[in-house]
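Standup notes
- DV: blocked on the single-chain target, sequence here:
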Amino acid sequence: MEGQGISTRARVEYGNPAREIVPQDERVDLIVIGAQGQSLFQDVLLGNTAFDVLRLSPIPVLIENCDVVHELGHTKCRRICQQTFTRVLHPTDFSDCAKAAFHIVKRLKPAGTEQVILLHVQDDHAMQHRSAEQIAEFDGDDYQRLEQMQRALTLDGLSAAKTIVRHGVPFRETLRVADEEKATVIVLGLYGRSAVAEMVFGSTFEKIVRTSRRPVLVVRMEPQST
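- DV (later): unblocked, structure below
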């Protein structure tokens, strides 16, 4: 890494891997951790270390999913997306938590971002008792909010932004759009370290993180003190 002009420090620690990985005494802006791509063992791998790091870390965590390949008698990990930040997919529910993640998205151009896909998914379960007129009104409002975000990206130099509104199961539609748009990373927001966070895990957030074959950048929003 130093050969690439990157100042580097090496440390070996003992103890619980996730707790040792989460920085306590370093000035760190991002944790990058590898995980095997979608497989029969995905839940086990993420549950052991990477997912625990997500639960504990107060700073953004990038999970780089890799495929395990066997070549000439050797086992190697191959990155699924070679240029992580080229095409960024940002699913949003317009919450404060999602806004914290969007704040990071706006700053990604120096990392090589060429396009941002802004996505909002209307949950079919939540919409099942709404009339067609109400759903159309919600869609119109959602497009307007996405277009406001699109304009904000333009002001930050990211003019190639795309807005998408979908209906369905949020985590499935998110992964489907990621495949359709050939996203190289999915940027998600996560709320604080509390019982609320534990409720988020096990739903849309957890399913995206656990089943995505593409890298996932998780941005935590800490709860405001009252």
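- Follow-up: The domain at 11-221 is CATH 3.40.50.620 (Rossmann fold).
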